[in-house]
Design brief:
- With 106 residues, this protein is an all-alpha fold.
- The protein has a domain of 31 residues.
- Helices cover 89% and strands 0% of the residues.
- It contains three helices and no strands.
- The protein is rod-shaped.
Length: 106
């Protein structure tokens, strides 16, 4: 962004001493330090809030993915599907036996 060499820094210091004066220079430096401290604090608060939002959205996405995996798992429940197929086969066999016994009775 900005690049200052030693000559620019020295010139800036001389201008500050002339404009503010040596008497008020410590107060000015203190105010500049306080301003920089507040800027750093605001910056770190902003970064932490952005990170929290990112983590929150990542957690929501992770929870959504887990729910999708659970749905897939329920759909792939082999034992339940196998039991349903066995029940269907048993029902078919029973119907067939009933039909055979009805035919024999006639």
């Amino acid at each position: 962004m900005f690049s200052f060499g030693w000559s620019e820094i020295f010139l800036l210091g001389v201008i500050i001493v002339i404009v503010i004066g040596p008497k008020d220079l410590p107060k000015f430096i203190k105010q500049v330090g306080f301003l920089l401290k507040n800027i750093r604090k605001i910056s770190s608060d902003f970064k932490s809030s952005i990170n929290e939002l990112a983590e929150e959205s990542e957690i929501k996405e992770f929870a959504k993915s887990v729910n999708e995996v659970k749905k897939i798992k329920d759909g792939i429940n082999i034992k339940k599907n196998f039991e349903n197929e066995i029940k269907t086969v048993k029902d078919t066999v029973k119907l067939t036996e009933d039909n055979i016994s009805n035919i024999k009775e006639k």
